[in-house]
C-alpha cells in the first residue's frame, strides 16, 4: 500500500514512482484566463492547452507512461499484416483476460460503434448500470434505447455504500420479463460508472448479473476502460475479495463476461483499444466491421508503437501499487475538500474528484447548467481545467426539451502518475476560495448548440457579467498573484 501515515499524524498518499521527464506548465494571469474561457465559449474542451495550468479535464490518453512502456515502443514491428507486436498484445490479452480472440480498435468509442452496429437494431434495449455519453449515443444511433438499472444508492450524492455502481438485480429481471429476451441486445456493465463519480461495482454483483443473463441467454458486455480503479476498489472494499490478487480478480471478472471492450487511453496508459471474446461466432460477426472502420486486424487503427505500450501497460495494471495511485490521490483531494465543507461525491470513486455543482451553486437552475458554470469559474479562478458531467452532457429529447441530468458534477480527473501533491493542494485552495465566493457565479446559456455530443464543441455565454466580477474579487483578495 502507498497511503502512509506521517509522524505528524497525517495520512498522505505516497507516489510510488520518481519523475524523470518533466513538461513545462503555464499559469497565465487571471485576466488572460477570462479572455481564454470567453474565446472557448465557456466550454473547457475548447480551451488551448497553453492557457491551462492543471489539466484535469480527463484521464483519457494523458496518463503517464512508464519507462518500460517507452522502451517497448522502440521494439515495434510495424508490418501492416502479421505484426509480431500485435501477437504480443494478443498473447497478453489471453494471459490476463483469458480471451482467445482480440480485435484492435483506435479507442473505446470505436469499440462501442462496432458492437452497436453488430448487435443493436431498431427496438433493441441495452440495460446498463449507467450509461456513458458515447455508449448511449451509439445505441441510439442504431435504433436502440438504453435502460439504466443502477441501484438506488448509486444516485445518492453522499453515501457510505462502497459499490454505488452495482446493477439492481430485481430491476434487471423485471426488465427482461417485461420486454422479452429477444429485445435485449446485451447487458452492459461499466467498470467505474463515469457519469456519477467513477463509482465501482462489486465482483459479487457481477456474478449475480451473470447468473440472470445466463438464465435468459443474454450476453454480458464489460466496458473495462476504468477497470484499474474498479479492481482497486474490489480488492480494498469487498471483504470476500481481499485475499484475491489483482490478477485473480481480473480473471474472475473476465470469466463472467462474454465480451470485454476497453479504451487503452484509460486502461493501459497508452492510446488505443479493443474488443476481446472467447466466442468464435462473435469474433466472426465483428471482425469485418473492425477491418471496415478501423484497419486491418493486426493494427485496428492504432500505432504499432502504442500496441507495444498497451501490452506492457496491461501487465503493469496487475500491480496494486500502480492501480492504487489514482484512487488514493482522489480520496485525499475529496477528504481535503470535505474538511472545508465543500460538497463532493462520496465515497470517493475512481477517475477523479467530483464536486456536486447542484449544491455548490444551488442558486443556479439546471436550465443554466451549474456544472458547466462551475467548470468555467474554476478555470478563471485557478487555471484548472475540469469537465462538466451534468445536463450539458445530456442531449435534448425529440421535441427539443432539455433533459435534466440526475446529477450536476464538475469532474476533476486525476491522470495516473501525473500531478504532485502540491498541485493537488493548489487546486483544493482555489476551489475553497471559489466556494467562499460562490454567490458571484452565474449561469450559462447556449449560443451554438450541436444536436449531439454538444458538450464537446458547443459554445455558451455567461448570463450576466458574473465572470468580470469574479476576476475583480480575485484581484481584491490575491493582489498581483496568479
Describe the structure.
The chain is of the alpha/beta class. Helix content is 40%, strand content 13%. Helix 1 packs antiparallel against helix 15, helix 4 (108-119) packs parallel to helix 5 and helix 15 (370-382) crosses helix 16. The longest helix has 16 residues, at 421-436. The chain is globular, with a radius of gyration of 22 Å.
Number of helices: 18
How would a textbook summarize the main sheet? 5 strands, mixed
Number of domains: 2
Low-confidence stretches: none
What number is the mean pLDDT?
A: 95
Sum up the structure in keywords.
482 residues; Aspartate Aminotransferase, domain 2; 18 helices; 2 domains; single chain; three-stranded antiparallel beta sheet; five-stranded mixed beta sheet; Aspartate Aminotransferase, domain 1; alpha/beta
Topology of this protein?
Blueprint: E1 3-5, E2 11-13, H1 30-39, E3 54-55, H2 67-72, H3 84-97, E4 101-105, H4 108-119, E5 125-128, H5 133-141, E6 145-148, H6 169-179, E7 187-190, H7 203-216, E8 220-223, H8 227-237, H9 246-255, E9 259-263, E10 273-277, H10 280-293, H11 304-316, H12 320-323, H13 325-339, E11 352-356, H14 357-360, H15 370-382, E12 384-385, E13 387-389, E14 409-413, H16 421-436, E15 444-448, H17 454-457, E16 459-462, H18 466-478
Parallel strand pairs: 3-12, 5-6, 7-8, 8-9
Antiparallel strand pairs: 1-2, 4-10, 9-10, 11-14, 13-14, 15-16
Helix pairs in contact: 1-15, 3-11, 4-5, 4-10, 6-7, 13-16, 15-16
Amino acid at each position: 500500500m502507498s497511503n502512509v501515515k506521517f509522524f505528524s499524524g497525517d495520512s498522505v498518499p505516497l507516489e510510488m514512482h520518481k519523475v524523470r521527464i518533466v513538461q513545462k506548465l503555464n499559469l497565465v494571469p487571471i485576466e488572460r484566463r477570462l479572455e481564454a474561457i470567453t474565446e472557448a465559449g465557456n466550454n473547457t474542451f475548447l480551451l488551448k492547452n497553453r492557457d491551462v495550468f492543471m489539466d484535469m479535464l480527463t484521464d483519457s490518453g494523458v496518463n503517464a507512461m512508464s519507462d518500460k512502456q517507452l522502451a517497448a515502443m522502440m521494439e515495434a514491428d510495424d508490418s501492416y499484416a502479421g505484426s509480431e507486436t500485435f501477437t504480443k498484445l494478443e498473447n497478453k490479452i489471453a494471459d490476463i483476460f483469458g480471451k482467445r480472440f482480440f480485435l484492435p480498435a483506435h479507442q473505446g468509442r470505436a469499440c462501442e460503434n462496432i458492437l452497436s452496429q453488430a448487435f443493436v437494431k431498431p427496438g433493441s434495449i441495452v440495460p446498463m448500470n449507467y450509461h456513458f455519453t458515447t455508449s448511449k449515443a451509439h445505441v441510439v444511433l442504431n435504433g436502440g434505447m438504453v435502460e439504466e438499472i443502477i441501484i438506488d444508492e448509486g444516485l445518492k450524492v453522499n453515501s457510505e455504500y462502497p459499490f454505488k455502481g452495482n446493477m439492481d438485480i430485481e430491476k434487471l429481471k423485471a426488465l427482461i420479463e417485461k420486454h422479452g429476451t429477444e429485445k435485449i441486445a446485451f447487458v452492459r456493465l461499466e467498470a467505474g460508472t463515469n457519469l456519477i463519480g467513477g463509482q465501482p461495482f462489486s465482483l459479487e454483483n457481477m456474478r449475480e448479473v451473470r447468473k440472470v443473463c445466463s438464465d435468459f441467454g443474454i450476453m454480458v458486455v464489460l466496458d473495462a476502460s476504468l477497470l484499474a480503479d474498479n479492481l482497486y476498489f474490489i480488492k480494498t472494499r469487498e471483504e470476500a475479495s481481499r485475499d484475491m490478487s489483482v490478477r485473480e480478480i481480473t480473471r474472475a471478472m473476465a470469466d463472467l463476461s462474454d465480451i470485454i471492450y476497453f479504451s487503452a487511453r484509460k486502461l493501459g496508459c497508452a492510446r488505443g483499444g479493443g474488443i476481446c471474446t472467447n466466442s468464435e461466432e462473435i469474433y466472426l460477426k465483428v471482425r469485418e466491421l473492425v477491418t471496415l472502420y478501423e484497419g486491418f486486424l493486426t493494427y485496428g487503427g492504432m500505432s504499432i508503437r502504442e500496441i507495444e505500450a498497451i501490452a506492457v501497460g496491461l501487465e503493469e495494471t496487475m500491480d496494486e501499487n500502480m492501480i492504487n495511485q489514482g484512487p488514493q490521490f482522489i480520496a485525499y483531494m475529496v477528504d481535503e475538500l470535505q474538511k472545508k465543507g465543500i460538497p463532493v461525491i462520496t465515497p470517493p470513486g475512481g477517475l477523479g474528484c467530483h464536486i456536486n455543482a447542484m449544491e455548490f451553486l444551488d442558486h443556479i437552475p439546471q436550465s443554466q447548467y451549474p456544472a458547466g458554470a462551475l467548470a468555467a469559474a474554476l478555470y478563471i479562478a485557478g487555471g484548472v481545467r475540469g469537465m462538466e458531467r451534468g445536463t450539458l452532457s445530456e442531449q435534448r429529447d425529440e421535441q427539443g426539451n432539455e433533459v435534466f441530468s440526475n446529477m450536476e458534477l464538475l469532474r476533476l480527473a486525476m491522470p495516473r502518475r501525473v500531478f504532485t501533491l502540491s498541485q493537488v493542494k493548489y487546486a483544493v485552495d482555489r476551489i475553497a476560495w471559489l466556494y467562499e465566493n460562490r454567490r458571484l457565479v452565474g449561469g450559462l446559456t447556449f449560443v451554438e448548440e450541436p444536436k449531439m455530443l454538444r458538450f464537446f464543441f458547443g459554445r455558451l455565454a455567461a448570463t450576466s457579467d458574473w465572470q468580470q466580477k469574479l476576476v475583480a474579487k480575485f484581484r481584491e483578495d490575491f493582489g498581483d498573484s496568479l
